[in-house]
């Protein structure tokens, strides 16, 4: 092979490899940026949910319909977090593992079950019902935060069998 052809080939190979490294770094940077946005959003939303959940404890039995409305608003916030989690992980070219999403869905369903109890609550069991709703909302929030805190595109779990 002629020296000029060899030099051109080497330059082409180096250029191709450098491009691949640059693209890989850009992808890694995009994933890291998305993860940081998710973490910041989760932290902010989590704090808002925690503050709101503490306020739920102030509702009396006579205020249970107002309590239900306030709890549903917090649940809407949790649903937004779940939606953001899915969107942010898709934007980062990854997916949350099915196992992680199943945990979030289970926690979310527990909130629904707790809220159903509000309609049948009596003055005698009101404190337990109210606490159950508070705890289930906090559980859903924690399930979301756990997945977000892993910063991994698969919800912190390896793809496939371990």
Overview of this protein structure:
It is a single chain. This protein is mainly alpha-helical. The protein has one domain. Helix content is 79%, strand content 0%. It is built from four helices and no strands. It has helices at residues 3-56, 64-91, 98-119, 126-149. Helix 1 packs antiparallel against helix 2, helix 2 (64-91) packs antiparallel against helix 3 and helix 2 packs parallel to helix 4. It is rod-shaped.
**What gross morphology would you assign?**
rod-shaped
Can you summarize the main beta sheet? none
Overall helicity: over 70%
Mean pLDDT: 75
Q: Which consecutive residue ranges, at least 5 long each, have pLDDT under 50?
A: 153-162
Number of strands: 0
SSE run: HHHH
Q: What is Rg? A: 24 Å
Structural class: mainly alpha
Report the total helices: 4
Strand residues, percent: under 5%
Number of domains: 1
Q: What is the terminal separation in angstroms?
A: 48 Å
Task: Write a concise synopsis of the structure shown.
79% of the residues lie in helices and 0% in strands. By secondary structure, the protein is mostly helical.
Structure keywords:
162 residues; 0% strand; rod-shaped; single chain; mainly alpha
Topology:
Blueprint: H1 3-56, H2 64-91, H3 98-119, H4 126-149
Helix pairs in contact: 1-2, 1-4, 2-3, 2-4, 3-4
């Amino acid at each position: 092979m002629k020296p000029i052809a060899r030099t051109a080939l080497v330059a082409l190979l180096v250029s191709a490899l450098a491009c691949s490294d640059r693209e890989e770094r850009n992808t890694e940077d995009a994933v890291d940026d998305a993860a940081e946005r998710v973490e910041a959003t989760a932290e902010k939303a989590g704090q808002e949910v925690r503050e709101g959940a503490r306020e739920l404890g102030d509702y009396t039995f006579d205020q249970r319909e107002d309590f239900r409305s306030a709890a549903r608003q917090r649940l809407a916030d949790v649903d937004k977090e779940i939606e953001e989690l899915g969107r942010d992980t898709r934007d980062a070219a990854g997916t949350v593992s099915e196992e992680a999403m199943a945990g979030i869905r289970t926690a979310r369903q527990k909130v629904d079950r707790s809220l159903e109890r509000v309609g049948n609550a009596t003055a005698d069991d009101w404190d337990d019902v109210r606490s159950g709703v508070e705890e289930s909302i906090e559980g859903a929030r924690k399930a979301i935060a756990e997945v977000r805190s892993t910063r991994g595109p698969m919800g912190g779990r390896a793809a496939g069998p371990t």
